[in-house]
């Protein structure tokens, strides 16, 4: 007995369809790879921007804290000046304006 392989003759239409599907798959895969690369690059850029913003917020936090200290200092100074004004006005009450 001689072994014979059952072979189906190649169908040119089927081969053409397979080739077309393969090309489409490869095109989509290539496009997907490009788009993934773009998204990855954009994500890297966003991470850098977030890092820069985080640093700027940190610097801004220090500036706001410094400004708050200055405002507190001004408020204390205003309170002292108001106290002095009240003290001086209190001393003037009851004095004769014509007396020197």
Notes on the structure:
The protein is mostly helical and 100 residues long. The chain is built from one helix and no strands. It has one helix spanning 12-92. It is rod-shaped and about 135 Å long.
What are the secondary-structure elements, in order, as H or E? H
Share of β-strand residues: under 5%
Mean pLDDT: 89
How would the global form be characterised? rod-shaped
Number of strands: 0
What structural category do the secondary elements indicate? Answer: mainly alpha
Q: What is the gyration radius calculated from CA atoms?
A: 42 Å
**Spatial gap, N to C terminus:** 146 Å
Poorly predicted regions are: none
Figure out the total of helices: 1
Helix content: over 70%
Largest sheet: none
How are the SSEs ordered, and which strands pair?
Blueprint: H1 12-92
Short structural description:
The protein is mainly α. It is 81% helix and 0% strand. The protein starts with 11 loop residues before the first helix and ends in an 8-residue tail after the last helix.
What descriptive keywords fit this protein?
100 residues, mainly alpha, 1 helix, 81% helix, 0% strand, rod-shaped
